[in-house]
């Protein structure tokens, strides 16, 4: 996915750039229906301790407060704000707080019941533990995202 890297401000880390792909055995509408219920993310996404929507629906300008626990126990608090929303195929958002930058998720339906979710996340951090553990950041992010994919798969089976 193409994007413009986040430029670090004084006291911030160089950009962290992560790309992930999840596969879901469901159509894009069913996947989107789960992803847009931000307040329920902690129920199925291990590592995501808190998700509190500030607004009633997912639309440009809507926000949510998140707390992510890394595999080493460090907490990251930040707010995501939707910038563009094309349900059920794409959402782009900005992040502010312990993480600052941009993300985009795209959902591509390949068969009647097969959707791929591609995510791109380019952020900086002011948190010293995160900056010091930069060499491990990819492994920690991958662990959180794999747990999310497994949780989404389980949630879809419950739907």
Structure description:
This protein has 159 residues and is of the alpha+beta class. The protein has one domain (16-158): Alpha-D-Glucose-1,6-Bisphosphate, Chain A, domain 4. The chain is built from 4 helices and 7 strands; from the N terminus they run βααββββββαα. The protein has helices at residues 28-35, 41-44, 128-132, 137-158; strands at 16-24, 48-53, 63-69, 75-86, 90-97, 99-111, 114-125. Strands 1-7-6-5-4-3-2 form a 7-stranded antiparallel beta sheet. Strand 5 (90-97) and strand 6 form a beta hairpin. The chain is globular, with a radius of gyration of 15 Å.
N-to-C series of helices and strands: EHHEEEEEEHH
Number of individual domains:
1
- What's the CATH H-level superfamily name? START domain
Helical residue percent band = 10-25%
The CATH architecture can be named as 2-Layer Sandwich
Instruction: Identify the strand order in the major beta sheet.
Output: 1-7-6-5-4-3-2
Mean pLDDT: 93
- Major sheet, described briefly? 7 strands, antiparallel
Number of helices: 4
Count all strands and give the number: 7
Alpha-carbon distance between the termini? 30 Å
A few lines on this structure:
25% of the residues lie in helices and 42% in strands.
